[in-house]
Amino acid sequence: MLPKIIYIGEFGHDPDEEGSLLLLISLHLAGKIELIGVIANRAPAIKRARLARGTLDVFDLQSIPVLVGTNANQSIREDDHVQFACEYLSGNVHWSFPHFSEFWGLIEDQPNQSVAVICASGLTDMYQLLRRGSNKAFHDLNLFQQKVCRVTIMGGVVTDKNEILLDEDGRVMPTWSATNNQHDELAEYVYTQLQRMGIELHIVSKHAAYTARIPRDTYDQLRLTNHPVGR
To answer: What is the residue-wise DSSP string for 41-107?
Structure first.
């Protein structure tokens, strides 16, 4: 059974998310994974969703839904418009993700323990999905636990001299030096709740990104292909 992937990213903010999306598209087209949904967050989330939608459409992947996420507690900046200066920005996106019904629709028909969620940006959306406090939330958490086998977060954990520190319950703790953990109460809740639920948690730190970085001229080579995304 192919891994079912949902990717959450701040598309356009920097090249990382679009590069990762291109990799996921390649794996999807090669039959190695099934990309079942993309969520764009960080203000302006609607434009980031339009960018992700356009990228998928260029590869004729209109069947993969793109949802508009939260603004990730960020405000729109004056220079944000340059991030969306491309010819393939789409106008066709799903608008309703802040109500979360679309997310549950992505996973409810998937086989049990088949979905992997990748969080490459702020954790506000994951926090909203994992919140408790109502009968509906209890149902949603059970569904999440039933369908999701792992969550990967671009973040970081507390360490001391290269040793991972655990809290009194034996759980890893988010470090506030990681950009995506900057809203500490949200990150702490997400990390703790996922571990309480027994969800396999993968944390990819900035150190891994620095170690595995690609050469700068890779982007020049993409541009020379004259592909719309490469340009």
So the answer is: -SSSHHHHHHHHHHHHHHTT-TTS-EEE---TT----GGGGGGG-STT--S--B--GGG-HHHHHHH
pLDDT tens figures, 29-75: 999 999 999 999 988 888 889 899 999 999 999 999 999 988 867 66
Give 201's strand partners: 151
Which has the closest alpha carbon to 144: 200, 71, 97?
200
Global confidence as pTM: 0.86
User: Which residue is listed with tokens 């671009």?
Assistant: 154
**Separation in Å, CA 63 to CA 34, 55, 66, 88, 177:** 12, 13, 9, 17, 37
> Residue 205 phi/psi, 5° resolution?
-90, 170
Q: Is 192 helix (H, G, I), strand (E, B) or coil?
A: helix
Domains of the chain: 4-224 (3.90.245.10)
> Rounded CA gap, 227 and 231, in Å?
6
Three-class DSSP category at 138: helix
For the CA atoms of 81, 70, 105, 143, the dihedral, rounded to the nearest 10 degrees, stands at 150
Q: In whole angstroms, give the CA distance from residue 224 to residue 206.
A: 29
Contact, 148 vs 115, CB < 8 A? yes
Determine which helix (DSSP H) or strand (DSSP E) holds 23, and give its type and residue range: helix 15-29
Angle formed at CA 17 by CA 13 and CA 23, multiple of 5 degrees: 155
